[in-house]
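Subject: Sanity check before I submit

Could someone independently write out the structure tokens for this chain? I want to compare against mine line by line before I put it in a report. The sequence has 248 residues.
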Amino acid sequence: MKRYSQTNLVELASLLKERTSQSLNEIDSSLTDQTAGGALARGRLFSLYGLHEEAIDCFSDALSLDRDLDDALIRLAITQLKAGYVEAALKNAMVLAARNPNFEFRAQTTDEVVSAMTILGDALAASERLEDAIEAYKIAIKINPQGNYTPARLAQVYLATGNQDEAVELAPQFANNLRFADLHHVLSLGRESKALLPKFNSSFIRSQILSTVVGRPFSVRGSIRLAELVQDNNWCVDIQDILLDNDT
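---
Independent answer below. Compare away.
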């Protein structure tokens, strides 16, 4: 059975073309600069083509030149998730969420906009810390109530933790996000009968996070790998401090 209609595919292709062109225009002028901005631009280009290791190197270079460059830090955490470096992604997501929880990131090839708290939620969910992920996603939705990515992630985690009613209520918030078309369809059926709703486990949520992180839906090949924290930073805040500080 086809996942998308022909109209959906045309709309998606047009959006990808538009956003890819915008992204390439944004990075073109600084692509060869030996600066933090240049390293960031190169990382963005590598990310567009799914070259995760090269992108990680570039974002790390950018942070070595400007450790306060939040755009590089959030992209680093996202790319680490795509590459399967869950532990490193969580550490970097925690650093950013602690210092700038309202920082927002727009995906390079879609219209998805997420905050640092969303990426923290993704990293927590990928680490199978689902209760903490729920709290992070709730805060992220307060930061960006119009977003159509975070509510879907929260719905997935709700299903994994047995909160079916809460998951169903979130469905209208991501109805226009094709990434989660299947999930939206299932939750729509769940309005008629809860028996039709799936029960996800934490391992399934982890696989979903790693294979469809915000932006292009890259697949992860091979086993999950762990990496050291890329930033030279021995400080790491407790996750509960981040969640409590931002739960306002």
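---
OP: Matches mine. For the report I'm noting this point. The mean pLDDT is 82.
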